[in-house]
Amino acid sequence: MPRIKLMLVDDHELVRAGLRRLLEDEKDLEIIGEAGSGEEAIQKIRDNRPDVVLMDINMPGIGGLETTRKLLHLYPELKVIIVTVQTDEPYPTRLLEAGATGYLTKSAKVEEIVEGIRAVHRGERFIGSDIARQLALSMLPGGKKSPFERLSQREMQVMLMVTQGHSIQDISDRLCLSPKTVSTYRYRLYEKLGVDNDVELTHLAMRHGVIGLESTSP
Questions:
Q1: Kind plus residue range of the DSSP H or E element containing 35
Q2: Residue 215, pLDDT score
Q3: What confidence score (pLDDT) does residue 137 get?
Q4: CA-to-CA distance for 31 and 8, rounded, in angstroms?
Q5: Dihedral pair phi/psi, residue 77, rounded to 5°
Q6: CA–CA gap between residue 24 and residue 207 (Å, rounded)
Q7: How far is 189 from 171, CA to CA, in rounded Å?
Q8: Strand boundaries in 75-217, DSSP class E
Q9: In what order do the strands lie in the sheet with 126-127?
């Protein structure tokens, strides 16, 4: 049988090397490429056409959320599995809404990662057990809620880039939006989240685990 062609997308070379090492012994899987950013992933996927992409969220540039959205717009048949340290909302819901067919954490066992790859390749959705538990708990009355759940997908993407230190013009260029539109999204973020500037926005995102210290520079 033809092997499932994989692309690894993560800005940490050690993470990609670890995933490659874990997966390369599976006879039905073939890793055909790697990328360290969303922009690089879009280029390489266009050239190599994998079946399944293992995608990180927090990367320089447009990041995993926007990369997923763009890729699935270009290649609706592509399967994207998010592999990340982010377990809390709004990430799982936002990525699944963007079209990701799988969501795993980087602490998942190799058996679960392989099972997920095979499942999404068959056309199924696959949510890691720890992510499924978080989603279930967040839906219960009194469950932990994040103020970032109020954001739309586009607002979430702009928020992530603002907290990485990208300028309005840079966000405009990368997301193909006018600077005026980006500014509108930015001030809408302030209003929805009850903050007055980018510093307060960044601190709020860090308190809720939406970003980490490593994500606060371009």
A1: strand 29-35
A2: 47
A3: 55
A4: 8
A5: -80, -10
A6: 37
A7: 15
A8: 79-84, 102-105, 126-127
A9: 29-35, 4-9, 52-55, 79-84, 102-105, 126-127
Determine the Cα–Cα distance for residues 158 and 156; give it in Å rounded to an integer.
6
**Is the pLDDT at 32 greater than 50, yes or no?**
yes
CA distance 86 to 93: 12
For the chain, report the end-to-end CA distance as a whole number of angstroms. 43
Q: Which residues pair with 33 in a beta bridge?
A: 7
pLDDT of residue 142: 55
- Beta-bridge mates of residue 6: 31, 52
Closest CA to 83 of 39, 127, 118: 127
Report, as an integer, the average pLDDT of 56-62: 86
Mean pLDDT of the chain: 86
**Residue of higher predicted confidence among 138 and 76:** 76
The whole-number average pLDDT for the span 16-24 is 93
User: What is residue 138's predicted lDDT score, i.e. its pLDDT?
Assistant: 58
More confident residue, 216 or 28: 28
Backbone dihedral angles phi then psi of residue 36, each to the nearest 5 degrees: -105, 0
Q: Are 148 and 205 in contact (CB under 8 A)?
A: yes
CA nearest to 145, candidates 103, 196, 93 = 93
Residue 34 token pair = 């790697």
Instruction: Give me the domains of the chain, ranges plus CATH numbers.
Output: 4-139 (3.40.50.2300), 147-215 (1.10.10.10)
The type of residue at 79 is K
Q: Is 183 helix (H, G, I), strand (E, B) or coil?
A: helix
